[in-house]
Amino acid sequence: MSDATISAGAPASQPRASLLVPDARTRKRNAAEARFRAYGLGAIIISLLALVVLLFTIFGGGIGAFRQTYLTIPVTLDAAQLDKSGNRDPEEIKKVLTLAYGKILDQSLQAVIAQNGIAIEGIADKDVSNLISKEASAQLRAQVLADPELIGQTIQARVLVNGRVDGFYKGRVTMESAARDSNTSPAQLQLAEALKDKGMLATKWNWSFLTNPDASDQRPEAAGVGVAILGSLYMMLVVLFLAVPIGTAAAIYLEEFAPKNRLTDIIEVNISNLAAVPSIVFGILGLAAFINFAHLPQSAPIVGGLVLVLMTLPRIIIPARAALKSVPPSIRDAALGVGASKMQSVFHHVLPLATPGILTGVILGLAQALGETAPLLLIGMVAFVKNFPAAPPAGLFDPASALPVQVYNWTQRADPAFMERASGAIIVLLIFLLCMNLFAIFLRRKFERRW
Amino acid sequence: MNDMRILERAVQQTDIKISARKVQVYYGEKQAIKDVDVDILDKTVTAFIGPSGCGKSTFLRCLNRMNDTIDSSRVEGKITLDGEDIYDKRVDPVQLRARIGMVFQKPNPFPKSIYENVAYGPRIHGLARNRAELDEIVEKSLRGAALWNEVKDRLNEPGTGLSGGQQQRLCIARAVATQPEVLLMDEPCSALDPIATSQVEDLIDQLRSEYSVVIVTHSMQQAARVSQKTAFFHLGNLVEYGDTDDIFTRPRDPRTESYISGRIG
Amino acid sequence: MNSERHIMSAFDRDLETVQALVVKMGGMVETAIHDAAIALETRDEELAEEVRRRDAAIDALEHQINEEAARLIALRAPRATDLRTALTVIKISAILERVGDYAKNIAKRSHVLVHMPAVESSGMALRRMSGTVEGMMKDALDAYIQRDPELAADVRKRDLEVDQMYNALFREFLTYMMEDPRNITACMHLHFIAKNIERMGDHATGIAEQVIYLATGELPDDARPKSESVTRATLNEGED
């Protein structure tokens, strides 16, 4: 009865437009949105291109590190040179230095050349002996020491060739550059070619890149990331066993139990700030606190691990808090309503639900720690380490290296073969990071459906 | 002579279960509850009604000390359960909440199996000595919540896989599993569809033979359907408390009259 | 109590509609009583016929009020005063319909009485009685409109008067009938008319009681003021 009625006589202001024809404003808006989508797509394409270029460069440069040129020749382990007393006494055998083994290899190679009738013009004795990597004699010695019964026998030894010859097969070295090079000569290269024709020289997949320790400047062919991998692994263990419990406990306390007062606010602000501190500052802190004050050994994974723990703590606390916060308060209320205490409600209900988020944060924190270089440089992990550290916990105090530091180290060396090694190490690092990130994604997916 | 009176529902017991005297509740500086005096009877459903923000939920949460979880809240006055002051320093709120159960507005089963949901309370309070006793308690509680027949074959499935009405009944089963004496319900049906609402209301009617039930509700119709005693709250005050029949046919206070007939709030 | 509007304004409109119908019906019934009394007194056949015809409209109104009240209860879920309003509206309209029927009955009998010799002295008494009942009805309806329990209580008391007047008339008619048997038919009709008026008084009291229930929430506890002498009357008592 009180309904307003539109007066019948009022004329319509405009004829109604058809739904099927978009008006000018809609067209403009659609055009603007399409442009925005195009910008977004362009941005993504640029990012992807950058990623592709990065990967290409790295893989292109580094894949060579996984292939290595080997020489397989029969080596006569002459007892006269190696075990003068004839007792096969390990102590006696140990006294024989690598030099003697070098001579053995030399003799064996010469024998092969003679047997196969390989004659190269202008080849010098030096060229022949230098064909084999200097590292090979040490490896042969280690092999004999491990099994003294080999002495007197002729074994098929697989030895590394030197870096320049290896470079020849990887395209770094040519006949022309060999002529100018002091470490090799065209004749050596020809010898290598001849041996290859006979089937004794080949470039194979090089797993030992992953297991060998670092090698000196002269022997890039023998350099490997074995020590670096172990060093990084030990540091990750330290981070895992220290940062994860401490960080998780801190997050739980801050989120569930801390009273909401000024002090808690200050703590929260400081934790956020810590996450933003440049990593090199932590290196200085580690130097001052752990090395100068606590006198822990330099270059040890324990120190590197401790520094990384300090760095990773805020990166674990913050996502852990977010995971705890994301558990709906109705769950806590339900637990309290049934008569659970605060502690029971947190540990029986909130924590299990927050675990996937916390785990993701932990894995991502570990992945970031794995790639940190600056603080490790400052605490001295940049040194040249050839010996494998022992098993933990004692091994944590032995000097070691780390993957990113090793990369830095190798890029500083003169020999271009080390560049290849560095790229190879980067590939290893990237693969680890990729695996960790994939694991984090897998965990997230698996647990997300639960509630 | 009073042929207009609505049919009276039998109230079996009239013992006082919870007694509140001069209760004040403050959130920081703001006073949310002023001078509330009320007696909650045993084996009776008492409804708290009132407009939004009138304090009915706040007062409900005082009865099982859930307000303790809010830092800025302060409760004055005396609330007794069977004569004992629940805010006495010697009282452990955790123990209190085993005797006074609570069901919330949005069904919130734990993301665990149906069995675990119901078994959690008795387990942490040590009400069962072995698995067989726990099974018994779970079955009894689920039967008490009129849910047993629907879930007895799938006790290991997650509680969150049930429908809304079933989830709320699961929450009720969870609340009765700790063998409480009082059940507090904060708008238990507001998230449910009409059929689920009716099922829960029927359940509440059955529950009153064993427990004292206090239900906060936005729906006056629900309060009228389900309760024997009704308390009307307004701006933090308890305006009127009496038999549900009287409140809905001949309220004494004009504010109650206005609210009931839809003239304010 | 009812000074505030409902939040749902359609609710207010529904309440006003149904109460307006009751007031209208009350007015029609008051007119019917008045006209029936006049028709009886002035032996006006046309007026009597008029009253009989108009009763159909009164019945239709009762039907309509019932419909409206059912709709109100189903759709608006009235509580407290509104609930009492809905319930009393149904009762009052039923009462009014019966009063209307009595008025129609009086008109029917007047029609018959026109063709008979008049019984003189009863006229004034009947007029007084119907006047009182008209007053009671008017006051009951006014009390309803104003929700005035005191006025309604007053209406209840006046029923005693009406009962006494009926008792007196009853004895008077007995006397007439004993005096002259030719008067019996007329007196019987007149007696029924007097009974109808007395019943109308009772119904006006019923309306007053509903008003008290509406206003206070309680029906009056005390018994209605009644005069019992009629039920104890015997032929012997009428004799002197």
Topology:
The complex is a heterotrimer of chains A (451), B (265) and C (240).
Chain A: H1 24-62, E1 67-76, H2 79-82, H3 90-95, H4 98-116, H5 125-131, H6 134-146, E2 154-160, H7 163-170, H8 175-180, H9 186-197, E3 201-205, H10 208-211, H11 226-257, H12 262-276, H13 279-293, H14 301-325, H15 329-337, H16 342-370, H17 374-378, H18 403-411, H19 416-448
Chain B: E1 16-27, E2 30-41, E3 45-49, H1 56-63, E4 73-81, E5 84-85, H2 93-99, E6 100-103, H3 114-124, H4 131-144, H5 148-151, H6 164-177, E7 182-186, H7 194-207, E8 212-216, H8 220-226, E9 229-234, E10 237-243, H9 244-249, H10 254-260
Chain C: H1 9-42, H2 45-76, H3 80-113, H4 122-146, H5 149-179, H6 184-216, H7 229-232, H8 235-238
Helix pairs in contact in C: 1-2, 1-3, 1-4, 2-3, 3-6, 4-5, 4-6, 5-6
Keywords (chain B): ATP-binding, Nucleotide-binding, Phosphate transport, Transport
GO molecular function, one term (chain B): ATP binding
Protein name (chain B): Phosphate ABC transporter ATP-binding protein PstB
Would you kindly provide a written description of the structure presented here, covering whatever features stand out?
The complex is a heterotrimer of chains A (451), B (265) and C (240). With 451 residues, chain A is mainly alpha-helical. Chain A has two domains: 67-206, no CATH class; 226-448, MetI-like (MetI-like fold). Helix content of chain A is 64%, strand content 5%. Chain A contains 19 helices and three strands. In chain A, helix 14 (301-325) packs across helix 16. Mean pLDDT of chain A is 84; it is low at 1-7. A six-stranded mixed beta sheet of chain B has the order 6-7-8-3-9-10, sandwiched between helices. Chain B has a four-stranded antiparallel beta sheet with strand order 2-1-4-5, covered by helices on one side. In chain B, helix 3 crosses helix 4 (131-144), helix 3 runs parallel beside helix 6 and helix 4 crosses helix 6. In chain B, strand 1 and strand 2 (30-41) form a beta hairpin. Chain B is α/β, with parallel strands linked by helices and 265 residues long. Chain B has one domain: P-loop containing nucleotide triphosphate hydrolases (Rossmann fold). Chain B has helices at 56-63, 93-99, 114-124, 131-144, 148-151, 164-177, 194-207, 220-226, 244-249, 254-260; strands spanning 16-27, 30-41, 45-49, 73-81, 84-85, 100-103, 182-186, 212-216, 229-234, 237-243. Chain B starts with 15 loop residues before the first strand and ends in a 5-residue tail after the last helix. Chain C has helices spanning 9-42, 45-76, 80-113, 122-146, 149-179, 184-216, 229-232, 235-238. With 240 residues, chain C is mainly α. The model of chain C is unreliable at 235-240 (pLDDT under 50). Chain C starts with 8 loop residues before the first helix and ends with a helix. In chain C, helix 1 runs parallel beside helix 3 and helix 2 (45-76) runs antiparallel to helix 3. The interface between A and B is medium-sized, with 20 and 27 residues.
